[in-house]
Amino acid sequence: MLVTGAAGFIGSHTCVDLLTAGYRVVGVDNFVNSSPRAVERIREVAGPAGANLEFVELDVRDSAALSKLLAVTPVAAVVHFAALKAVGESVALPVEYYDTNLNATLRLVDALREHGPRRLIFSSSCSIHGDVDVLPIREDAPSRPTNPYSRTKAMCEQILADLCVAEPDWHVVALRYFNPVGAHPSGLLGEDPRGTPNNLMPYLQQVAVGRREFLTVFGDDYPTPDGTGVRDYIHVVDLAEGHRAALEHLADAAGFRAINLGTGVGTSVRQLLEAFGAACGHELPYRVAGRRAGDVAELYADPSHAAETIGWRASRGLAEMCRDAWEFQRHNPGGYDGAGA
Ligand code: NAD
Ligand code: WQD
To answer: Residue 313's closest CA among 235, 257, 247?
Structure first.
């Protein structure tokens, strides 16, 4: 398997899952949002199977480097994680986001048209839907992305769907993740964002370990049971297993298909604060502030399509997500490189 963005949060966990399931993995990354340490950790966590990881540092937009790699290293399928992913940053740097996310996908498709395989899993996001009218979110809900990041994901999905119409020998699955959190239970792999975390769980992790003073709760006046925002948090190891299930399914399904990877369970900010406090053994300080621009009250998946098509269902609950995230954070208080920010 070729895995792009292999050193990132979801990519690193997926590499471990694929290696321990017996696959040979070629990982690539340019470390724009990750550390070479993550590659060492993948090998360590995978144990003897770690020897089946080949890693190449490259930018996926570099067609020549990709072509050279695929010419000498044939792979059975590709999982394409490499992208920039911060919603707020994408509003400030739209050109950089369109450049990276669209060109990485387009150049990868070029290389696969030349060398094969025509089998691709694409990392998409529930945020392509924007404000939804109907919950839980099904795959056929309208696509109305509200920021450049989410538009890059919707555009890539469209490009891949059009490709599958024009060239029917392609097998493509866009996996739409809800809110990936947690870490590998070993405490060796986890989420290590650069700078101040944008997302709730990594922020909470850093509050728990004393790197941040308190959590700012963005709004407690939403029309939800406790007034705080509700999301569908999914354990990153469940997510990794979802990629393997989709890869195994690619063999028999040509064309383009989008599949939600979520749990179907909504959790509020207050519920997550409580669950994380229980996992780390102390209450976490927080202050309630106003709503964050662009946030919606509630989002959670209808995960039934994944169960029907690829036989996958999330099996890890909130307590396990918090336990594993805490295990990673307390063993790596300053992240992989120890510096922190
Ligand atoms: P991440 O930033 O941890 O991982 C992405 C990896 O891609 C990083 O290691 C980065 O260095 C690498 N990368 C970026 N541009 C590259 C390029 N041009 N060439 C080579 N490598 C490059 O993010 P993640 O959370 O692991 O997300 C993985 C994928 O899942 C992304 O496509 C993201 O948009 C998508 N996604 C993430 C979430 C989430 O909340 N984490 C939700 C939905 C979708
Ligand atoms: C979750 C909840 C916040 C931080 C984003 C992207 C989405 C996907 C996942 C990539 C909300 C609240 C947060 C904080 C808070 N990524 N919050 N204090 O916004 O659901 O989704 O990440 O594809 O595309 O949009 O995730 O973790 O930022 O927020 O109160 O310091 O936590 O208001 O209710 P979000 P999040």
So the answer is: 235
